[in-house]
Amino acid sequence: MADCLFCKIIAGEIPGKFAHQDDQLVAIADINPQAPLHLLIIPRRHIATLNDLTPGDDALVGAMQRTAAALAAQHGYSEHGYRTVFNTNRGAGQTVFHIHLHLLAGRGLGWPPG
Length: 114
Ligand code: AMP
Ligand code: ZN
Description:
By secondary structure, the chain is of the alpha+beta class. About 20% of the residues lie in helices and about 20% in strands. It has helices at about 5-10, 60-75, and strands spanning about 20, 25-30, 35-45, 85, 100-105.
């Protein structure tokens, strides 16, 4: 999609610090990290919000969560714990309208989130 920040990062038009790449997903470091580990797991295909998912995307979203778990493991956070978050629409803080799963770890993570 022409005017999408994450489509541009995936296309290499804007730099990103890639932590993972495969045929359907990438993971990049968040530019404004909210925890010592803050990665964004992003599908290569543009999907604006979770509201736009179809049943055909079930495996993709499962792969996003499993990739987050694998990246958490790579960084040593499997046992202690980590958080994965999708923000959907502005009321929940979504600012980039291309779905992405936040992976946060490395500090105390309060509940409920703000
Ligand atoms: P959200 O607010 O859930 O839509 O998350 C968007 C995230 O993208 C925020 O945590 C931003 O810090 C992050 N972000 C914005 N621009 C960039 C960028 N150029 N590279 C990496 N992360 C970014
Ligand atoms: Zn996009």
